[in-house]
Amino acid sequence: MTSTKPPESTPPLLGLVLAGGRSTRMGVDKSTINYHGKPQFEYVYDLLATYCDEVFLSVNAEQAVRLAGSRFTQIEDDAAVAGPLVGILTAFQNRSADHAWLAVVCDLPLLSEQSIRKLVSNRKPDKLATVFRDSDHQFPDPSVCIWEPAAYPAILRAIEEGKPYPRTILMQHEIELLVIDDVRELTNANTPDDVITVQKRLKPGQTNPDKRKRN
């Protein structure tokens, strides 16, 4: 497969698999659940590898110990930062503030390579971010998002203002909003019942849900 990389005039693109959540409702580390013949974090990692110069795992301290010595380059969440921005903020602070980050949460088992390609192909580096609309087609869904370098100071300002929420940041800035071809790909699997539902949608041997294009 031919890699789709941004032009040299744009900030290079790094991948970030957001796997460091506590998975309280799931009861087990949801990043390790096998939907596609491999742990979900590895599935997302491999999806991003085609389109990014390098891919990193955003992990908590326990995961960092468990995955030490593996093939996956890790960025351990900064304990001094709390909330849903911890992964992407730590990546900007501790790895690179000059790159763009394609950040994807690890609980979207129906997410396809086609959607990653669409996001990267329609990337607008002059905007704060490129992101899909949510399942209701009303707001940006930060679970699959390209954050440009300009997002870093915007994130810092949001934290200072007491509004450390990815969706809020996206809504307050100029962004590129796309429509995902199959909205089911944005389905989060956060509970054991969600896992059962997803597994029913994925037939044996398939790695993507059935495609029903939106007009």
TrEMBL record:
Mg(2+) binds at residue 107. Transfers a GMP moiety from GTP to Mo-molybdopterin (Mo-MPT) cofactor (Moco or molybdenum cofactor) to form Mo-molybdopterin guanine dinucleotide (Mo-MGD) cofactor. GO terms for molecular function: nucleotidyltransferase activity. Belongs to the MobA family. Its main location: cytoplasm. Its EC number is 2.7.7.77. Residues 15-173 form the MobA-like NTP transferase domain. Pfam families: NTP_transf_3. It is an enzyme of class 2 (transferase). It comes from Larkinella bovis. The N-terminal domain determines nucleotide recognition and specific binding, while the C-terminal domain determines the specific binding to the target protein. The keyword Nucleotidyltransferase applies. GTP binds at residues 18-20, 30, 77, 107. This is Probable molybdenum cofactor guanylyltransferase. The gene is mobA. Keywords: Cytoplasm, GTP-binding, Magnesium, Metal-binding, Molybdenum cofactor biosynthesis, Nucleotide-binding, Nucleotidyltransferase, Transferase. Gene3D superfamilies: Spore Coat Polysaccharide Biosynthesis Protein SpsA, Chain A. PANTHER family: MOLYBDENUM COFACTOR GUANYLYLTRANSFERASE. Coiled coil: none annotated. InterPro entries: MobA-like_NTP_Trfase, Molybde_CF_guanTrfase, Nucleotide-diphossugar_trans. It comes from the Bacteria. It catalyses: Mo-molybdopterin + GTP + H(+) = Mo-molybdopterin guanine dinucleotide + diphosphate. It is found in: Cytoplasm. Its cofactor is Mg(2+).
